[in-house]
Amino acid sequence: MTQVPGGHRGPAAITLRGVCVRLGGQSILSDVSAEIPAGELTALIGPNGAGKTTLLRVLLNQVPYVGRVEFRGASNARPRIGYVPQTLDFDRGAPIRVVDFLACGSQRRALWLGIARSVRRAAIAALEQIGAAGLIDRRLGQLSGGELQRVLLAMALLREPEILLLDEPVAGVDLAGRGMFCDVVGTLQRRLRCTVVLVSHDLSVVTEHASYVICMNRTIHCQGRTVDTLTAENLRTIYGPTAALHHHVHAHEGARHSHPTHAHPDHHGHEHAGP
Q1: What distance in Å separates the CA atoms of residue 164 and residue 39, rounded to the nearest whole number?
Q2: Rounded average pLDDT over 259-264
Q3: At what angle do helices 145-157 and 117-129 cross, to 10 degrees?
Q4: pLDDT tens readout for residues 69-128
Q5: What is the pLDDT of residue 33?
Q6: Looking at residue 11, what DSSP letter applies?
Q7: What band does 213 get if pLDDT is binned at 50, 70 and 90?
Q8: Where does residue 156 rank: exposed (0-12), middle (13-18), buried (19+ CB within 10 A)?
Q9: Helix/strand/coil (H, E, C) string of 145-170?
Q10: What is the spatial distance between Cα 9 and Cα 243, in angstroms, rounded to a whole number?
């Protein structure tokens, strides 16, 4: 059984050994070796183009790679994996309800024949887990960015995942929606004890919700407990010499956090690590 480094003696849910990815003749990931602890929330951080999304695609088996990806368990069988993308591209004018969207992944008969009671119950149950049952009959195109991401999270939960992958799920969501979504994910992870892998540029989210951090830029630079790993020195290694330590207050919770960032705020007042 692989043990996770960085002060954690529990097992690893996922172990990566020498993973490399080349796409279009270009090296995207090089010799990536890392351990992701079981039953915890691990954050992947790094600048734009660091290969974070590609690494999630490796875990989803959606991109060719060399090296080894090992999942916890003697059989090394692929576990149930849920995935929440950055965004969902769809026609906002289409007459699609949330229940119709959630039924797409589980109902075999045509949706125009009606939603099966069991499918509707499962959709409501998934939404209830994240406090969003009231969205069940809303039009998908009428949802806010934060509401839509919660629906995508509910879709992932329908698979009863053992591992949940979140690819910058609050990118483009306003500050209030961002805080609510991240709080929901944190609560969900603690209740279900599933393994969560979160890609994020917002280090305030990482420091508040992630217990383990992997810092990467096409390869792994460091990994370990969040409190030990998010140092100014490590952040300068992956983001460059302009990274520094800043403080800010979360508007949605009034909490003050310290985190290393580049010295430029985004449009909603946060300062992020990535360029």
Answers
A1: 10
A2: 44
A3: 120
A4: 999 865 557 899 999 998 888 878 888 899 999 988 776 666 666 788 888 999 999 999
A5: 96
A6: B
A7: very high
A8: buried
A9: HHHHHHHHHHHHHCCCCCEEEEECCC
A10: 31
Task: State the amino acid at position 223 in one-letter form.
Answer: Q
In this structure, what DSSP letter does residue 108 have? -
Mean pLDDT, rounded, of the chain: 82
- Location of structure tokens 């009863």: 160
What backbone torsions phi and psi does residue 252 show, to the nearest 5 degrees? -80, -10
> pTM value?
0.81
| HSE-CB of 128 using CA atoms within 13 angstroms | 6
The DSSP letter of residue 50 is S
Residue 237's CB is within 10 A of a number of other CB atoms, namely 15
Cα(53)–Cα(124) distance, integer angstroms: 30
CA distance linking residue 82 with residue 84, whole number of Å: 7
Which residue type sits at 191?
R
Instruction: Name the percent of the chain in helix, strand, coil, to the closest 5.
Output: 30, 30, 40
Pairing of strands 66-71, 12-23: antiparallel
